[in-house]
Amino acid sequence: MGKITGFMEFERQDESYLAPESRLKNYKEFVLKLTDEQAKVQGARCMDCGIPFCNSGCPVNNIIPDWNDLVYRQHYRQALDVLHQTNNFPEFTGRICPAPCESACTLGINSDAVGIKSIEHKIIDEGWEHGWVKPQPADHRTGKKVAVIGSGPAGLAAAQQLARAGHDVTVFEKSDRAGGLLRYGIPDFKLEKFHIDRRIEQMEAEGVKFRLSTLVGKDFPASVNNWAKETIFPEDLEKEFDAVVIAGGAEQPRDLPVPGRELKGVHFAMDFLPQQNKINAGDKVKDQIKATGKHVVVIGGGDTGSDCVGTSNRHGATAITQFELMPQPPEQENKPLVWPYWPTKLRTSSSHEEGCERDWAVATKRLEGKGGKVEKLVACRVEWKDGKMVEVPNSEFDVKADLVLLAMGFVSPVQQVLEAFGVEKDGRGNARAATEGTNAYVTSKPGIFAAGDIRRGQSLVVWAIREGRQCARAVDEYLMGHSVLPR
Ligand SMILES: Cc1cc2nc3c(=O)[nH]c(=O)nc-3n(C[C@H](O)[C@H](O)[C@H](O)COP(=O)(O)OP(=O)(O)OC[C@H]3O[C@@H](n4cnc5c(N)ncnc54)[C@H](O)[C@@H]3O)c2cc1C
Ligand code: SF4
């Protein structure tokens, strides 16, 4: 513990942002990382609890008190080593993780939690700036071959761990660039894509091969982006590789079955967001869906919806409204009731702050338009009675809408991927696999493993990294009979 009285002396200081008027001009990140002095002070706030709840609140079990202390002492290189012990990609989580560790921080019970995420961000950025992040190739080869399907955070974490254990790893990705939703989905202003590129370079130097634009399986639904130029059948992969990890994410979007859904100008968020990622990467996109000069309505109050708001503002939308079906949560959580768990409370993202109207407990009844183009969204207010959602009488209203973005989450993985492999599904259509015991991460077919959103349903980057790492250990044990990879 760096400074015994630090938690009493110093206030929490969040990272600052560039002002909206300057950040809305481009798609670059706008969060300003802590200075050395600020990071030292923030590290000093950690009480080094005997039972650090932050550590168990963090899905990858980051060893947070140790690196808080090292940052207080300004030993960034050692802090980076501790951080990398539990997290392959802290530059992703240090930017876009909602930080469940902070909800679990003991200091948060009667004060503001330690700014753990801002400290993580600082450590990994120092690491890259000083050239401390280097490839770590295995010192021996096992001769075993592993295929990983999907290059999102789960697939990347699994592939890196397996390569470091000496296996020959090939990642198959249907998109033209690696990264999963980190690349195509999450806007560049939250995570610039050079962060992914340099991790891919590191992994290639560690021996991982990437086969991009390659779909494993067949008959992909039209509602899911598929830019693949080549198709590989699962049975061919199974013959060539000693083990397969399916990490294809949960890509089947939730649709809105209301009259008018077919009108032009109504799109899934995941048709809209990846197009802007591609443009930012220098690609040309034919007939890009643009919010410029439009009245945009975003349906869905989560992360994806907020990303649509931020992107629409950068396009220059005239007005943006975001509707959420659930009631507005309280501004402050009831800490004694919820600590150390993730609380339900009103969350206002930087995208919301850039400008948008938000409304809760609203259900869309229909979409109306002229000449096949959407012009209006008709909605009503809803309330919950006996656990059922009911329409509030006489509450119908409408809003002008030239662009409607459906951001209501994802129902499941694409079923065709799991069916092509012939693995069992759970009740929600995810790949059935446990996370504990001798059968951890293995599907109903021996040698075929599953990790990330495809196994747990739509979730977070940090959970995907955890699952990728734990799955890698399970695969290593399956191939070698034992493993030194961390669990
Ligand atoms: C718009 C948006 C914003 C988000 N924002 C955040 C955030 O701020 N913070 C956060 O923690 N989480 C966020 N999430 C959630 C997070 O991105 C996911 O939980 C995480 O990426 C899941 O990782 P994954 O590796 O399991 O799957 P994914 O990232 O979905 O990657 C799966 C990959 O597999 C590929 N693939 C699928 N099937 C095949 C196949 N048959 N053959 C070849 N390739 C295949 C896909 O093309 C994709 O690249 C967001 C999600 C979305 C959609
Ligand atoms: S719970 Fe908070 S105060 Fe305690 S060790 Fe973790 S970060 Fe430090």
From TrEMBL:
<dbReference type="GO" id="GO:0051536">
    <property type="term" value="F:iron-sulfur cluster binding"/>
</dbReference>
<keyword id="KW-0314">Glutamate biosynthesis</keyword>
<feature type="domain" description="4Fe-4S ferredoxin-type">
    <location>
        <begin position="37"/>
        <end position="68"/>
    </location>
</feature>
<dbReference type="InterPro" id="IPR036188">
    <property type="entry name" value="FAD/NAD-bd_sf"/>
</dbReference>
<protein>
    <submittedName>
        <fullName>Glutamate synthase (NADPH/NADH) small chain</fullName>
    </submittedName>
</protein>
<dbReference type="GO" id="GO:0006537">
    <property type="term" value="P:glutamate biosynthetic process"/>
</dbReference>
<dbReference type="Pfam" id="PF14691">
    <property type="entry name" value="Fer4_20"/>
</dbReference>
<dbReference type="InterPro" id="IPR017896">
    <property type="entry name" value="4Fe4S_Fe-S-bd"/>
</dbReference>
<keyword id="KW-0560">Oxidoreductase</keyword>
<dbReference type="InterPro" id="IPR023753">
    <property type="entry name" value="FAD/NAD-binding_dom"/>
</dbReference>
<dbReference type="Pfam" id="PF07992">
    <property type="entry name" value="Pyr_redox_2"/>
</dbReference>
<dbReference type="InterPro" id="IPR006005">
    <property type="entry name" value="Glut_synth_ssu1"/>
</dbReference>
<dbReference type="InterPro" id="IPR009051">
    <property type="entry name" value="Helical_ferredxn"/>
</dbReference>
<keyword id="KW-0028">Amino-acid biosynthesis</keyword>
<comment type="pathway">
    <text>Amino-acid biosynthesis.</text>
</comment>
<dbReference type="GO" id="GO:0016639">
    <property type="term" value="F:oxidoreductase activity, acting on the CH-NH2 group of donors, NAD or NADP as acceptor"/>
</dbReference>
<dbReference type="InterPro" id="IPR051394">
    <property type="entry name" value="Glutamate_Synthase"/>
</dbReference>
<dbReference type="InterPro" id="IPR028261">
    <property type="entry name" value="DPD_II"/>
</dbReference>
